[in-house]
Amino acid sequence: MGDQPMAPLDEVKTVDSNHCSNVFPSPFWGSGFVPSGTQFFVEIFAGEAGLTQAIIARGIKALPPIEILANEFVVEEVDILDPKVFQHLCKLIRAGCIFFIHFGTPCSSFSQARKDDGGPPPLRDRHNLWGRPKLSRQDQARVELGNQFMELTVELLVLCCQFGVHWSLENPASSFLWDMPPVRALAARAGVGRFILDMCRFQSKHKKPTALLSDCDLSALALACDLDVRPHVHEPLVGMVMSKGKKIFKTKLAQVYPPLLCQAWAKVIACLQADPLAATFQMAVPAHERKRPLGQPLPWVVHKQRATAEKARDAGYQLKRSALPPLLQVEMEPGQAVQRALQVPHPFTLDPALDPDLQEALAFALHKPHQLLGHR
After folding, report:
1. How many CA atoms, within 13 angstroms, populate the side-chain half-sphere of residue 266?
2. Residue whose C-alpha is closest to residue 269's, from 164, 166, 189
3. Model confidence over 99-146: pLDDT tens digits?
4. Does the first or last residue of the chain, that is N or C, have fewer Cβ atoms within 10 Å of its Cβ?
5. What would the pLDDT profile of 317-326 be if each residue is shown by its tens digit?
6. Per-residue pLDDT tens over the stretch 14-66
């Protein structure tokens, strides 16, 4: 399907700062609009979008989270299976508008918490990863939807790998999602790592071992239960509870990321957006190894061919080194030298200075035109 035009200006609204970090068309997803000038974080299958909130709290730009049901933070209901939404997301990835994307792909049909114990029956097993035989029509639909979500997730993550977009994927550590062939192939890619954490380390009431797959180092999040150091109780993830006036399974409620996890995760992601040359700019030479003291001017005597050398430089040529003043005119640390050199404009991006004789003639014509007329 072709790109969709941007929404008319009267339809573009500013979302409250507690909900979004920029101004986008409304609805944004599927509009085809491509923001310019910066890169964004985006959370897919966002739930309550806790990670997006933590990202924005760190001052990082974020696109509206993608979630099928609106809530306090998700102001736009988005179906990722909508071809226009999928196409829009692919377009943003290819255009370099996204620097990090997270998938909280639904685990319900992949869950091993479903057992033959009188509760919801299992939908998959080790021998039937794509779905057990003889499922009810309703359960078969759940399996097929889960397969769609899984395949869409992998397709987008492969695209991220191709275009250098950082990513992460979360599911319970025991989820059959990790055994699905497309996900296993993704995990086998060079540079991809798997990290295991227990949610209780982030003040969750449940231990809930959780796995993260990512092209980034998320080892700072890979914290195991510290029951032997910090006594606490793990609430079992069985049965149902009341939430917002509705009776839901505890496993559903536990899908929400603890705020402490979101904050730690956002900190790791924020480091990825830092200047990649920051470490280079910090390079320094120990004082006892330095030949000249910091700040000492570098000697240079004005050369008689300086004007000619400047013209040659502006034309893309080079005369002998001493004809022009040195690029760095004082002694500085290596990191400072790199930073200063990167700030020097390329000669081809500047208009060369006019010849002094031509400048004089133009100035004469501008300021003394009557004298020119008098010579006619």
Report:
1. 25
2. 166
3. 999 999 998 899 887 777 667 789 999 999 999 999 999 999 999 999
4. C
5. 776 677 877 7
6. 334 344 445 688 899 999 998 877 899 999 999 999 999 999 999 899 999 99
Q: At what angle do helices 83-94 and 137-163 cross, to 10 degrees?
A: 20
Domains and CATH numbers, the chain: 9-278 (3.40.50.150), 279-374 (no CATH)
Separation of alpha carbons 195 and 146, rounded Å? 22
* Residue whose structure tokens are 């999602």: 177
8 Å CB contact between 43 and 89: no
The reply to whether omega before 133 is within 30° of 0 (cis) is no
52-74 pLDDT, tens per residue? 999 999 989 999 999 999 888 89
Residue by residue, DSSP assigns 1-35 as -PPPPPPPGGGEEEPPTTT-SSEEESS-TTS----
Instruction: Name residues whose C-beta falls within 8 Å of residue 257's C-beta, 6 or more positions apart in sequence.
Output: 47, 50, 51, 104, 265
Distance of CA 183 to the CA centre of its chain: 21
pLDDT tens-digit series, residues 279-331: 677 788 888 888 888 888 877 788 888 888 877 777 777 766 778 777 777 88
Structural contact between residues 40 and 63, judged by C-beta atoms closer than 8 angstroms:
yes
Tokens of 45: 């299958």
Evaluate whether 30 touches 84 at the Cβ level (below 8 Å).
yes
Q: Is 161 exposed, middle or buried (0-12, 13-18, 19+ CB in 10 A)?
A: middle
Would you place residue 188 in the very low, low, confident or very high pLDDT band (cuts 50, 70, 90)?
A: very high
Helices H, strands E: what count in the chain?
11, 9
Q: Which of 178, 165, 171, 263 is nearest to 221 (CA)?
A: 263
